[in-house]
């Protein structure tokens, strides 16, 4: 964990170790008590393919399971 300060132009410089680990592009997400920097992949489609490479179900099957789980949780 590191402390960083905005410069006079409002820029934030991340430590080299953080940039090397997570990259140079981030999405800023506002949360209830601050902000969160979410690293963005160089190629978002490749990142999604990698993330879901081991998923053997179709998108429709996943939607159906999610729908059933939501209905069960709602008590229907």
TrEMBL record:
GO terms for MF: DNA binding
Domain SpoVT-AbrB: 4-45
Protein name: SpoVT-AbrB domain-containing protein
SUPFAM superfamilies: AbrB/MazE/MraZ-like
Superkingdom, natural source: Archaea
Organism: Halohasta litchfieldiae
């Amino acid at each position: 964990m590191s402390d960083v300060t905005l410069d006079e132009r409002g820029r934030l410089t991340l430590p080299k170790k953080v940039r090397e680990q997570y990259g140079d592009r981030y999405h800023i997400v506002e949360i209830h008590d601050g902000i969160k920097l979410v690293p963005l992949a160089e190629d978002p489609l490749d990142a999604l393919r990698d993330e879901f490479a081991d998923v053997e179900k179709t998108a429709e099957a996943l939607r159906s399971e999610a729908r059933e789980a939501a209905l069960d949780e709602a008590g229907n």
